[in-house]
Amino acid sequence: MTNTENYFKVGTIVNTHGIRGEVKIMAITDFAQDRFKKGADLFIDTKQGRIPVKVQSSRLHKNMWLVLFVGVTNINEIEKYKGDDVYIEGTARPELEDDQYYYDEIIDSTVVDLDGNKIGVVKEIMETGANDVWIVQRDGQSDALIPMIDDVVKSVDVDAKLITIDALEGLLD
Q: N or C: which end of the chain has fewer CB within 10 A?
């Protein structure tokens, strides 16, 4: 894998689709429809280095993005990238409003309660429609599901990767 500084992971090529060179990408971005739209510039991170690609077409199919890159005409040209991650350049990320965060800013953050007691580490983000839910891995306990709502999340320090929550009664049971 190459140096990914100033690049942000937006998905992983999990398989090919059909014989015309489409790939199935498992997206890990809030903005998948923008990341994989026609003309979007992406980078495939391979063992040999980062390969720039441009999206020719894309569509959502069974919770995966089916993407065809410009210049790819058959499965043999793309199969070698199965399992590789897909990135965008950091300059392609728009500024977010206050209290909005990119997944990579939240994942691997430590979660503490109002007294500073460690609850766990965010390992995944689940989109529910109304609000995101952060899945927090706890030592020796089942994962905690933390809703991203003002009543619960009190502060997020992106630089320190530290999230403070108000552990409302029953939230961590």
A: C
